[in-house]
Design a protein that fits this description.
Elements (H helix, E strand, L loop, with lengths): L3 H8 L4 E5 L9 E5 L11 E5 L5 H13 L4 E5 H4 L2 H9 L4 E4 L5 H16 L9 H18 L3 E5 L4 E4 L8 H9 L4 H9 L2 H7 L4 E3 L9 E8 L2 E9 L6 H41 L16 E7 L6 H14 L7 E4 L2 E7 L7 H11 L4 E4 L9 H16 L7 E3 L4 H11 L9 H12 L3 H10 L4 H8 L3 H14 L7 H16 L2
Parallel strand pairs: 2-3, 3-4, 4-5, 14-15
Antiparallel strand pairs: 1-5, 6-7, 6-10, 8-9, 9-10, 11-13, 11-14, 12-13
Length: 512
């Protein structure tokens, strides 16, 4: 399922902006290009495109027709979508209103959105996936090669090779390494960065020539690919020197077409990622044998890890950070999701990227200020929710300083968890027995008898150690314990009573 706001997020701000969020939870089933001369607004659940509307009055009437037809949302050109009357109508009907940048053709919008909707409907289907877009990128690379009569590669804004033209045999070594490795080699990236190429790409929309470099690097004609001011990638052609203005113009036109393909590719990848996160989230929340969730996980047993990052990051940012860190250190397919405000990972107990030992080392060595708390082993999908609950509980204890961090397994903290669960079952406002008497005495007479009793219980048979913890003389401790026995009816020889007192004291110290 994908909603209109989800579509906007997937494509990005280069083309769309949500003006009115509307209900925001209605599934988009298709895109409908409405004819202003016809009353039809598609089927319920369609995202309707407002083509050919002449002014605000037409747009308001269009909003009302689409709302009556149960559309999932509407897309209007920015000038109309920002009109006060149009916004008011969309808000009145709780209809999602999206603004479209003026430079994009409606046909391109339909092609882009349908590709993303199809991917959302079948996120794992190779037919609905991004294979078609990749094939089109290779065709565009060949078209650019025909324009400039030189080998071409298409790269994203991270210097990853997305496609290349046929006939790469006469290129320089750097280009060969780029094609083989599917990424520009680090030394070549460093060379271009030193020449300010990437700064220029990020700021400019005009093609430019990069002179020849060391180690046989030939000149490059570089064409930035942008949409709505956002830098998406670039076209690189290995040339012998400057090219004509006509070639520059044709390459710029090709870059405009390429921008839509890159937006669609990114949007489809974002939809697939969101779908994967949603399915893993469902699996971690509750196991249902009647409704199995298709999640591709590594061989079991698994562990659920609750992750925490420094507080300046919100949960979506934390999810992105952990995914980026995982991929950077070799985890090619991170199994991550956020649930109830916590980032969770599913790892194995084996070795290598994506395992608990690997993640523990990553957190300890490279993620300063982060915490990883591991739940117990899960030998099947039915065990994942309990492993998740243990991990989240343990993370909370590490954050509060009750359990040691930054890396901890439930097997190493079972005793802390046991006490914590017992304490959480008690009500601090309904404290009975001798401890309640001591608490009242401490409040009324400004004494510290509860603290004294706690130290004595924590160090049984070691009065010297208990006294040192309280910064008291041993005889003073003995005197206090005698007074405690006079104030409250205690039988400290009874192990059950000692345990009950310790749990009550822990409850008081934890607070409501």
């Amino acid at each position: 399922m994908i909603t209109a706001p989800d579509l906007v997020v997937a494509v990005g701000p280069a083309l769309f902006e949500v003006v009115v969020a509307g209900q925001g939870d209605t599934e988009v089933r298709d895109v409908f290009l409405a004819d202003p001369q016809e009353p039809a607004t598609g089927h319920p659940g369609d995202l309707v495109l407002g083509l050919g509307l002449r002014g605000p009055e037409d747009a308001v009437e269009f909003v009302e027709r689409c709302a009556a037809g149960n559309a999932s949302g509407i897309i209007l050109r920015t000038t109309l979508a920002q009109e006060t009357a149009v916004i008011a109508a969309a808000e009145r009907w709780s209809l999602t209103l999206v603004a479209l940048q003026p430079s994009v053709a409606w046909a391109h919008v339909v092609w882009l959105l349908r590709g993303v909707i199809d991917r959302a409907a079948a996120p794992d289907s190779p037919v609905a996936g991004d294979a078609g877009v990749h094939q089109e990128l290779f065709a565009l690379a060949d078209a650019a090669r025909a324009i400039v009569d030189a080998p071409v590669t298409i790269e994203d804004n991270q210097s990853r090779v997305l496609a290349y033209s046929s006939g790469q045999d006469l290129t320089d070594p750097a280009r060969v390494s780029t094609i083989v490795g599917r990424r520009v080699p680090p030394e070549v990236v460093a060379h271009f960065r030193a020449r300010g190429i990437f700064r220029r790409l990020a700021r400019s929309s005009e093609p430019f020539l990069v002179p020849a470099g060391p180690n046989g690097i030939r000149p490059r004609l570089v064409v930035p690919v942008r949409a709505g001011g956002e830098w998406l990638g670039s076209i690189w052609a290995v040339v012998d020197g400057p090219v004509s203005a006509e070639v520059m113009t044709e390459l710029s036109n090709a870059a405009s077409v390429l921008a839509l393909h890159l937006l669609r590719l990114r949007a489809q990848a974002d939809v697939a990622r969101r779908s994967s996160i949603d399915r893993l989230r469902t699996l971690l929340r509750q196991f249902s044998p009647d409704n199995p969730v298709d999640v591709r996980l590594p061989p079991q047993p698994w562990r659920v890890i609750a992750l925490s990052s420094p507080e300046e990051y919100d949960v979506p940012q934390q999810l992105d950070l952990w995914e980026s860190a995982g991929r950077r250190h070799g985890w090619s397919d991170p199994h991550l999701a956020d649930l109830d405000g916590t980032v969770l990972a599913v790892v194995t107990d084996a070795e290598g990227p994506g395992s608990w030992p690997w993640l523990a080392k990553l957190v300890a060595d490279h993620a300063k200020g982060s915490i990883a708390a591991a739940g117990g082993p899960a030998r099947g999908p039915a065990d994942l929710p309990s492993s998740r609950a243990e991990a989240v509980e343990l993370l909370g204890l590490v954050r509060r300083g009750v359990a040691p961090g930054p890396v901890l397994r439930v097997e190493e903290a079972w005793h802390v968890l046991t006490v914590h669960r017992a304490v959480m079952s008690l009500d601090v406002n309904k404290m009975d027995g001798p401890l309640a008497t001591l608490l009242r005495h401490d409040i009324e007479h400004d004494t510290g008898f509860v603290e004294t009793l706690q130290a004595w219980l924590e160090h049984p048979g070691q009065p010297q150690r208990a006294a040192r913890e309280l910064h008291l003389h041993t005889n003073t401790l003995r005197h206090r314990m005698k007074r405690i026995g006079e104030i409250a009816a205690l039988d400290l020889s009874d192990p059950v009573e000692r345990l009950a007192l310790q749990l009550q004291i822990a409850t008081v110290r934890t607070g409501p």
